[in-house]
């Protein structure tokens, strides 16, 4: 158990996620602090394990957000490493200048987060690019 006199204020929390966490804590008979501590420990452990894994320059991982990639970003990455993969669990925004040519430089997109693409990008091109399990928003 934690000492309840140590109050920590966290700005910018997603209210919907927090409310779900409160509900889950009640279901489990725990307090929110216990669940937050468990989640933070798991995250810190994952970061520790990740640092031991070799870095794959052909794999871009986006877990926060929003991250915006322009056509020049994509072409620059392609110039450095060749075709590459993007794993998105956060929010990935493809800038308005990203076109079919730029998408051909991406080997695969694995999206379980939010993916924002220009209206000109055809949905089938995204499906061909990879696994889309999150949301896609055209702007």
Structural description of this entry:
By secondary structure, this protein is of the alpha/beta class. It has 2 domains: 15-52; 59-138, no CATH class. The protein is built from 5 helices and 7 strands, in the order H-H-E-E-H-E-E-H-E-E-H-E. It has a 4-stranded parallel β-sheet with strand order 2-4-6-7. Strand 6, helix 5 (123-129) and strand 7 (135-138) form a beta-alpha-beta unit. The radius of gyration is 19 Å and the shape is elongated. The model has no long low-confidence stretch (mean pLDDT 82).
Features:
2 domains, 139 residues, single chain, elongated, alpha/beta, 41% helix, 3-stranded parallel beta sheet, 4-stranded parallel beta sheet
């Amino acid at each position: 158990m934690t000492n309840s006199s140590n109050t920590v204020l966290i700005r910018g929390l997603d209210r919907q996620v927090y409310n779900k966490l409160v509900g889950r804590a009640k279901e489990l008979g725990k307090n929110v602090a216990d669940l937050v501590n468990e989640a933070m420990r798991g995250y810190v452990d994952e970061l520790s394990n990740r640092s031991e894994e070799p870095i794959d320059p052909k794999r871009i991982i986006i877990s926060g957000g929003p991250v915006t990639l322009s056509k020049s970003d994509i072409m620059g990455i392609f110039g450095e490493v060749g075709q590459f993969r993007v794993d998105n669990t956060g929010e990935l925004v493809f800038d308005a200048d990203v076109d079919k040519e730029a998408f051909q430089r991406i080997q695969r997109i694995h999206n379980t987060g939010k993916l924002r693409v220009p209206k000109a990008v055809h949905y089938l091109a995204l499906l061909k690019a990879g696994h889309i399990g999150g949301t896609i928003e055209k702007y």
